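Materials and Methods. Structural model of Nicotinamidase/pyrazinamidase. The 304-residue sequence of Nicotinamidase/pyrazinamidase from Sphingobacterium chuzhouense was retrieved and submitted for structure prediction as follows.
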Amino acid sequence: MKTPYENIVNTNHIASFVSRENIADILALAQREHIAPASQDVKRSLLLAIDVQNDFMEGIGSLGVAGSKGDVRRLTKWMYHNLKSLTGVICSLDCHSMMQIFHPVWWLDEEGKHPAPFTIISYHDVVNGVWTVANGETGRSLEYLRNLEFEGKKQLCIWPYHCLEGTSGAKLESEFTKMLYFHAAARNAKPKLVYKGQNPYTEMYGIIKAEYDEEHFVNHTVLNAIRAYDAIFIAGEASSHCVLASVEQILEHYATDRSITSRITVLEDCMSPITGFENSTRQRFEELKDTYGIQIRKSTEVAI
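The predicted structure was written out as C-alpha cells:
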C-alpha cells in the first residue's frame, strides 16, 4: 500500500466529533493505489459492518458501547491490511424517529410520566394499566408485546433516544467512514448502506427482520448478497444485540445450508457488548459456532 494507514484514519479522533471526513482527500489518496477493481476478485469476500454509528460510540453516543473505540480502530486496521482482497462492504444503520415503541415518549405511567431508559415493559404491565400508550395506539402496541412474548423474543426495553433521522448520532463513525470510502475508491466498489428500524411499531435489532411485525418483512436483498460471497466477515455494535441478532437471522435463514453458514467469520475483537450482557453474548456465539460452523476469530488472526 502506498498510503500509510495513519494518513487515512486518525485513531485519536475515533468517536470524536472533532473528526471530519474530507472525502475528496481520501478519494485522491485511494486513486494513487492502482489496485485491481473488486469486480475482478476470484475469491469474493464481504464485510458486514453492523451499526458503526456515532450513537453507539463510547464517550459521544446516547447509547455508547464500552470498547467501541477500540473496535473501530481494529476494524479499520483489518480493512486496511485486507483492502486488496476485500471485495465488498455492507453497512447497516439504525434509523429511528422520536415516536417509536422503544422510546420513552411512546409510554406513560399512572402519573403521566415517561419511562426511564432501560425500563422493561411487558404485555401484562399494559393490560394492568402500569403503562399506557401516549399516542392512543394501544391495540397495535399490545399486539406487538403479545407476539414478542408468544414467540419468545426479547422483552421490550425502553432505550435512550438514539440514531434519530438527521442527527449526528445516526451517522457512521467518521474514521470508519474514511476507511469505507478509501476502500470504495481504491477497489471501485460502491458500499451498500442498509437502513433498519424505521417501523415505529417494532424493534429491529438484526439487519434481516424485525423482532415482530405484522407485514413479516425480510431483507432478501442482503440475504441474496451474502450468498454471492465466498467469505463473510461480521463486526460492529453492539455484539450483544444488533450484531448477535443479525448473525442469528442470517443463520436461521441458511440453517440447512452449511456451505454458506461455514463461510461466516465473526471478528470478535471488532465488536463489544452492552454492559451486563458479556457472558450471555459470549455463550450464545459459542452455541452458534457449534450449531452452524461459523468461525469466531480475532481480526489479527484473519487474513483474506
